[in-house]
Amino acid sequence: MDPLSDRPLRTGIAVADDGVRLYWRAVGEGPALVCNNGVGVSTFFWRYVEEHFSDRFTVLTWDYRGHGRSDPLADPARGEVGIPQHARDLIAVMDAASIDNALICGHSMGCQVGLEAWRAHAGRIRGYVLILGTAGRALETFGDNPRSPMYFRLAGQLVAALGDRTHLIVRPILHSRVAWEFTRRAKLVDPMYASKVDMSPYLEHLAMLDMRMFIRTVLQMQEHDAWDLLDSINVPVLIVGAERDAFTPIRLSRQMASSIRGAELLVLADASHAAIVEQPETINHRVERFLRERFGTSSS
Question: What is the pTM of this model?
């Protein structure tokens, strides 16, 4: 039986400040947990959070512009995809869902989006759960390779030159068994914990995206920097890092935790950048304790 079948469900469309339409979904009733995706991801990575917490909370998930059920960009080569725009989109989604304030949960790029929202809308943020992310300049530490920004810029130039022809190359690969095997063997996910059932939606969704928009969004993660905001954050914060995260090394989680007064840190052993679906029980248990101790909420 679907654990969400008897819980209140609302869906809707928020309109961004430039007219882009953004899909959102809210399950449950009570204080709001608003979940920001990683780049290239739709709402499916939050399903374990949704199942666990929507009996007592409103769990809101949404799709970035150009992702999932939100509008594609009218011009994927030029449309706005910077982190500040995504942060404004986050507030537009909260407004559309009639959420005045929320605990902001972010995975990967979603951490940067949530932190950037603090700059102009701190009063609407009750706290943060920042999972497997960083506060800015994300490509500098990608794979612990200082040349990563250069490689991504070259990829962006190649994709821009190929245009739509890029999809003739990329999409068949992402739809094939090769994509999952590469992901597993390259240990981009933990092969002992990650399941194909959880990762297949990611590969399928990635195949649907316009690669020009995707690469430009990734490059904007490098252009964004919210490290300057961390010492001004005065709400409860829980940071989740993973020892084997090849995308955002664990030292970034430690650095964020030391830069935010009173921040708590959970370090996941034997976990990758996909730990949100590899070790959901551990993460949910720790978030449960965080909510109880810092906000006085009760367990189910």
Answer: 0.93
